[in-house]
Amino acid sequence: MNPLASNAKTLGCLTPGQELLKQLMLQPLGSTPLRVCSGGNTSRCAGDGCWTVDLHRHQEVRYLEDSGEVEFGTGLTMAKLLQVLRASDRSIPIGLSGLTGSGFILTGGMGPLSRSQGLALDSITAIEGIWGSGEFFALSTPPTTDDVRRWRALLGAAPFLAVVTRLRLRTQRRQSLRVRHGVITPSQLPELLQIAESWPETCSLQWSWGNRLEIYAVDCSSEETTPQTLKQLDPILGTDQQAAIQSCTDQLELPTFGRLASETAPSMPVHSEVLARLGPALGQEAGPLMQLLSSRMQQRPHGECRISAQQLGGATTRINRGATSFVHRGSIWKPWITAAWKPGDRAGRQQSLAWMDQVSADFSTSCPGVHLAQLHDHLPGHQGELIEAFGEWLPELRQLKRELDPKGRLPPL
Ligand SMILES: Cc1cc2nc3c(=O)[nH]c(=O)nc-3n(C[C@H](O)[C@H](O)[C@H](O)COP(=O)(O)OP(=O)(O)OC[C@H]3O[C@@H](n4cnc5c(N)ncnc54)[C@H](O)[C@@H]3O)c2cc1C
User: Fold this and answer.
1) What domains are there in the chain, each with its CATH number?
2) Are 310 and 276 in contact (CB under 8 A)?
């Protein structure tokens, strides 16, 4: 579990099944909002003075051979889901770690396959759960005219409106991938970003800048047709064994992202918050932006503070802006900023959060959107992040919040 969440002084943890969850949402709880924990990766899956609903009882999973869909409970991690799908040679596009839970899917999470297969939420065909009001719902695609707004709201803004207990997703054929992983100097990053911006949608670049700058390029094209893209990195990464192209049979075999960015793994647990932004191709802006980030990296208040990014585009841009609550469909980059501090170090926390806000402001012109993969309803920037995440769709989401979670059982919108 996220170390900050696991240190929270909660009122307790509840693990209700569907029926009890419904009853629970109708009870006066003494304290709101309820915190919801699926994979348990974010700082807000548990909070001081709040009850936590832990979804780990919802783990049933079934592959539907006829339709090629998978139906599962939202207590499953992405790794467990992919392990089950492996038996049928199917998969869904997950993120850079199998540890994430349904929060990854519901908040519009993306990964190395998203440029060719879309966001995981773009594959959702049915959703079941309990609205904040305690009412049960089961919606599927195509939604009825009455359900269109609710369907859109659930795809990207579910944590504010409902506890989702069950999902059905379209699956894809399991694909092998090739990855090239190495360390570069910050001065090489602008050139690399420009190279990646012209890659086919079967390839994606991710990078993580900590003590060192790690790059992680993934190619999921069939080997026969486009073997060249990762080779373009020879002049940047060199040709020795360490920088060689690795083959992986599927997403579960990908090497751990982010481990090269630190020389050593932190010996003590750190507390952290993460803020993610979204923006279009950087083109010529990459150079000046990276120079600014380089100076910010020199001022980072803790060794685990990082700036990272992953690449979108292709299939993620082909969905209409109005179809889901993930409205930033033109995005090509998702940079995310990690603020870290020593547990209990209040001044360090303040400094790190101020640093995160500063870096977020540096990105705000080139990456004007926010990806709300982590809730920050305990931080001063929450309202601003909601506006930058949902744009013109936010007033409608707020109307739905009044209808579907009138007592504010779930996090504020
Ligand atoms: C190691 C690691 C790798 C990551 N890689 C990527 C990546 O490649 N791409 C990417 O986009 N993101 C990535 N993330 C971010 C991650 O996807 C998000 O933080 C996501 O919200 C985590 O979901 P979770 O279920 O694991 O965590 P949780 O903390 O359990 O859930 C996050 C929030 O989602 C809500 N929630 C979860 N499940 C439900 C539900 N069933 N119903 C209603 N609300 C729910 C809760 O409000 C909760 O606060 C990564 C995070 C980590 C720690």
Assistant:
1) 3-56 (no CATH), 61-173 (3.30.465.10), 175-265 (3.30.70), 268-399 (3.40.462.20)
2) no
